[in-house]
Amino acid sequence: MSPATDVEPVRIAVLNDYEVVALGVAAMLADYPRRVRVAEVNVYLHVSEPVDLVLYDAFARTKSGVHLDLDLLMSNPLASRAVLYTWEVTAQSVEFAEAHGLSGVVSKSVGAGRLVEALERIHAGERVVLPADPGEPHDDQPSWNNWPGKAQGLTPRQSEIITLVVAGLDNRDIASSCYLSTNTVKSYIRAAYRTMGVRSRTQAVLWGVDHDFRNSSRSRFMLADDDEPTSCTRG
Fold this sequence. Notes:
This protein is α/β, with parallel strands linked by helices. 37% of the residues lie in helices and 16% in strands.
């Protein structure tokens, strides 16, 4: 058997339609170049070249949106396996992933090293469900790299909730999409409003629009050989 250093890195595609989120995840994985290589970062939620594994980031996606994304993804012959990357690793989210043919569910709260290990195991043929350990950071000190509103002081979870507010969802729909209670959603919104300096949903939407809380529907990023992201747009 060849030594571990001779094993080719697992080729990964990171999918999320928010540019800052997708590139942040790619930057986190870049610390493990001998084990994983991010071959594509795609904000169109479509794999355009062969990869070993797709890391599907469910940031700010409604359940219906995730259904559509995964149906398209799993019918793509260029993506052999896929894993759901989400905050809530629950019986519901695991059942949801299995129903769509995904090979695993990994919490966003796990450290980068454990994420890479999980991706390697999935690539080797295992089905992996990896929730966060109690001692791992959850929201205030996440292991991943960037998100909308980070510079303004929002936590990743607050960012996701506000992104869904900007998209027009009510609290009940947000709770359903994020596997949270309505009261928990309200708590996140109140905390986010204090940070944003707004008092109403209308003000929050306007603030979000001003701070790029909209998806990157016109941009597509691929990582070149030098690992510098290059931007492409549809014609």
